[in-house]
């Protein structure tokens, strides 16, 4: 028996050694990729992204570090486990990827678990489905449609103002309420409402899901790991997925049975389901769209996608603005002066047109998004062999492409003294002196953020409501050094930022 076990153990050790050797050789061979192409590269035993994949480091911060270390280079190669990824630093090359040579970089290159219906949303859809979906959804975000939704945003903004004394997570609650009402028609009369609480709970889960996605995105070409990550994604999201799908299906059924029409996203998406287009808007390119109609599943996926893409990005924009304004009283006073002047001209009413007149507010938000880009990178996949202009390097099909917004925004070459919060960086003169692609924030080109104007509108209305009635100040506990959450691909502070609201006289 003893001899038999010894033999078994020896065989086991030998088998494990062979597997380890094979893995080692595979990785060593994989890491020759950039070296062979003569591209500067960085590499550690498990690619460069191990710490962010394992949740030990913020992905946005990691990319910024790579960007900074590669100073003087136009691009740098790195590895996501075994997948070659090219980080682009040169603004002119960025312009090509996003606009001019888009046809070679039209995919996001994120691995999708097809069994999850909510994954089939605009943000992640691959070609050829993405383009017609984008064309169909674009009319839902025109100025006319946003004006129609303005009243909802405004009313929730006023409720938020009333809630400032009691609620610590003010900006998060406000955004969940706006998006919740615009997308799911969840009526939230009180900021402490239970439905709003549930929605927030699930919204947090959607953000954690972002981390799982970053993982699956990173292992796109490691087939063996695909199934493992896909299963984890489903397990994590099962409850969230059924919550959202049921909420939307009930809503649609109720409206169809009772002939209810409203000025919100569900209504617009229902038009796509029942008529194949959004009323009152000309289609950009009708032959691209064809005669296809949205299914209930498409409607649910895009509602969820808008919720996930829109709520945390906008809420973090408000809280980051309030944080910087609390630390810079002079900037805050200047902004309040503008808000007071414009509102006086509009009879004290917060209207769509009044908000549009607040140009300093726009600069404050642009500077906030420079220092705290909620999605700190853009990603694409190379879809055909591509020779980098002014170089001999050929980027192969399947290579991941990343653009570090966080890196570009803190590059002193483009933004001198980058830690300084200075809205005047966004004066017309300053903007004209900079390459536009060092701040390609909403993204640019055909994949650009479809909801940016709504995100900014919500943020503006939220800030105007708060700052017209109170001032914001730091407390003894307000941090001066924000650390970022490692568990999500978004750039979110690890802890909430404590601020004090003081009623204006
Ligand atoms: C301040 C708020 C927001 C910020 C900073 C932001 C940022 C971004 C960024 C950086 C991208 C990637 C663009 C690219 O890859 O080129 C993006 C894409 C996207 N965003 Fe936003 N976003 C915001 C608000 C919203 C809102 C409110 C919605 C929806 C209601 C939304 C929906 C989307 C969608 C669907 C995409 C994918 C578009 C496509 O690939 O065709 N976003 N966003």
TrEMBL record:
This is CYP6K1d. InterPro entries: Cyt_P450 (IPR001128), Cyt_P450_E_grp-I (IPR002401), Cyt_P450_sf (IPR036396), Insect_CytP450_Detox (IPR050476). The chain crosses the membrane at residues 12-29. It is a peripheral membrane protein. Pfam families: p450. It comes from the Eukaryota. Belongs to the cytochrome P450 family. GO terms for molecular function: heme binding; iron ion binding; monooxygenase activity; oxidoreductase activity, acting on paired donors, with incorporation or reduction of molecular oxygen. Its cofactor is heme.
């Amino acid at each position: 028996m003893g001899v038999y076990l010894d033999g078994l153990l020896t065989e086991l050790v030998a088998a494990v050694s062979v597997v380890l050797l094979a893995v080692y050789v595979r990785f060593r061979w994989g890491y020759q990729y950039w070296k062979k192409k003569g591209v500067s590269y960085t590499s550690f035993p498990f690619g460069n992204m191990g710490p962010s994949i394992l949740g030990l480091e913020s992905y946005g911060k990691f990319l910024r570090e790579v960007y900074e270390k590669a100073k003087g280079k136009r691009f740098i190669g790195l590895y996501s486990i075994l997948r070659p990824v090219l980080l682009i630093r040169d603004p002119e090359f960025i312009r090509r990827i996003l606009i001019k040579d888009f046809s070679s970089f039209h995919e996001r290159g994120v691995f999708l678990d097809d069994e999850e219906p909510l994954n089939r949303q605009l943000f992640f859809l691959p070609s050829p489905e993405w383009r017609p979906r984008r064309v169909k959804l674009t009319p839902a975000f025109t100025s006319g449609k946003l004006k129609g939704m303005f009243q909802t945003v405004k009313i929730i903004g006023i409720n938020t103002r009333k809630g400032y004394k009691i609620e610590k997570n003010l900006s998060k609650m406000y955004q969940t309420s706006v998006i919740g009402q615009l997308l799911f028609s969840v009526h939230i009369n009180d900021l402490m409402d239970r439905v709003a609480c549930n929605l927030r709970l699930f919204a947090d889960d959607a953000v954690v899901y972002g981390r799982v996605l970053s993982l699956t995105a990173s292992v796109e070409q490691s087939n063996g790991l695909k199934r493992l990550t896909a299963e984890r994604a489903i397990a994590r999201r099962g409850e969230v997925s059924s919550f959202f799908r049921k909420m939307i299906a009930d809503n649609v059924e109720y409206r169809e049975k009772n002939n209810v029409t409203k000025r919100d996203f569900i209504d617009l998406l229902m038009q796509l389901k029942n008529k194949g287009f959004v009323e009152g808007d000309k289609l950009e390119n009708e032959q691209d769209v064809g005669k296809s109609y949205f299914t209930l599943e498409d409607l649910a996926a895009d509602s969820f996608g808008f919720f996930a893409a829109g709520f945390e990005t906008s809420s973090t924009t408000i809280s980051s603005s309030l944080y910087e304004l609390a630390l810079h009283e002079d900037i805050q006073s200047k902004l309040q002066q503008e808000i007071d002047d414009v509102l006086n001209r509009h009879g004290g009413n917060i209207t769509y047109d009044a908000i549009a007149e607040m140009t300093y507010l726009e600069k404050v938000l642009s500077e906030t998004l420079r220092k705290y880009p909620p999605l700190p990178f853009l990603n694409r996949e190379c879809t055909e062999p591509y020779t980098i202009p002014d170089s001999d390097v050929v980027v192969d099909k399947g290579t991941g492409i990343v653009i570090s917004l966080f890196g570009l925004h803190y590059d002193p070459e483009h933004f001198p003294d980058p830690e300084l919060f200075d809205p005047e960086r966004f004066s017309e003169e300053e903007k004209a002196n900079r390459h536009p692609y060092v701040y390609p924030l909403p993204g640019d080109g055909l994949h650009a953020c479809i909801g940016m104007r709504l995100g900014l509108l919500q943020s503006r209305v939220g800030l105007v409501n708060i700052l017209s009635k109170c001032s914001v100040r730091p407390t003894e506990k307000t941090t001066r050094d924000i650390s970022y959450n490692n568990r999500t691909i978004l750039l979110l502070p690890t802890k909430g930022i404590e601020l004090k609201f003081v009623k204006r006289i």
